[in-house]
């Protein structure tokens, strides 16, 4: 869905802005779902790695929370409304929600997979943005890729 106001003339066609906005909406949905999962695990982790994981999860969900605004605001800058409901996120996200409180090792595994899913979504969106010369979106997605790949690596290291 897009705004109905003064036409946007930034050198990217309306069709291309719609395509990139849809990909960014998927990125926002994945990012929000991962944020929520990470925050949930922060609250509910137990076991010998409690303090390490509790702090790591807090660092990761705090960073993710800040990123949500950047993604949503880029969608708005392209002339579209950002999705903002659980129903929309459920349709757009590639990450499944957990239905129970897993043990600490399973939490780590789920967060590795979640970060990798966000990275894949970012990579797809980045290709579409790059194809239409949308450098601000490419820059945003490059930063997100770096963060999610690093998070996945750090989490994966705990399992070795």
TrEMBL record:
Pfam families: Ferritin. One of its GO terms (molecular function) is ferric iron binding. Residues 24-160 form the Ferritin/DPS domain. InterPro entries: DPS_DNA-bd, DPS_DNA-bd_CS, Ferritin-like, Ferritin-like_SF, Ferritin_DPS_dom. It comes from the Bacteria. Belongs to the Dps family. PANTHER family: DNA PROTECTION DURING STARVATION PROTEIN (PTHR42932:SF3), GENERAL STRESS PROTEIN 20U (PTHR42932). This is DNA starvation/stationary phase protection protein. It comes from Pollutimonas harenae.
